[in-house]
Amino acid sequence: MVKKREPEMTKKRGFTLIEVLIASLILTGTLAATLGLFSQSLNVTQSAGSFTKAVNTAQMQLEIIRARIDPDDPTTTINFTDLNQWNNRTFQVLQLGDNAIGVCYVQPIAAPLASWRVKVVICWRDPVGRIMGEDNGAGGGTALDGVINGAEDADNNGELDSPVQLETVLVTGGV
Amino acid sequence: MGVKKARAGFTLIEVMMVVGLISLVMGSVLGIFITGHMAWNTGQLNSQVQQQARHGMDAMVRELHLSQHNRVQCIDANTLALQIPLNATALGGDGRSRIDIEDGNLIWGAEGNEGYWVEYLVESDQNLNRNVLKRKVLTAIGGAEVSETILAYYIQSIAFTADQISTNPNYPQGVKLTLTAARGASSCSLTTMVFFKN
Fold it and tell me: Cβ distance A119 to A166 under 8 Å?
């Protein structure tokens, strides 16, 4: 009787230990992969924070230029006609420290009214290490130095560009 | 006897192995779940804190622009008092301000209540059990409270300095404003400069 049952038993046997182990390994692997999504979303919120700080600083810089503060001495002002002193000036992004640089571009507009086109650009290295903006050291350039070098000016407009850049026009007499 | 033996269920060893394996698998699943939950919480905290910092900053900057250099006082490092032209209906409670012009002149404070001041300060809210950035309308500096609005939550500190700005009234006047929002391990600090436009 025992002999008769034995083959049946072997047939009906469930999973082997190896099978179960492999299955649990696959399960764990799959779940661990979804963890990657969480860490990715964390990185995204962190880079959103950098965006907020960069935009905030760009606004501040625009205010400073608009108030005609002297780039060499913040306690005095310059004339409206001398605003181009701000052209190509770099500034620090307080909240992002060494991982960011800001550049100002001030270009004259002749018509229809004598005015300045002011552009404030901020390039920064986000927590993942990727550099946002054109000052990224492409083509052997120096990253985050506020100057176009190497192949950094990808769109060849003679200015650094970035996802965070504010542009406005200042007209005579406006403070 | 033979039949009984064949029908015997699991041995203790087998059951223990199964329990061990299940707890192993469930343990790792739980670990992943907990890590995921923590990551989710941190992400949510980060975006909340950033949002509140942005919101508080925006609200203050918008009103500060309407003020004047001799109408802003840093009461202490965390309290800023300023005078702006208030909309009379704002005193009823909607808290919004706008420029009110009569005879081409700005009316500082509110019409008929020219001594009114607006104050920004960080307070710990007992009911909400968190720090909030408040905007108060007062009849005078240190005077009675007319209305109170919460501008943003989770604001840890606000600081105002006027040290970078010239004391010469002919130069543009402004304040440097730093705001830090924090909750748990997340924090977001913003700094800006405001130059008065009135």
Answer: yes
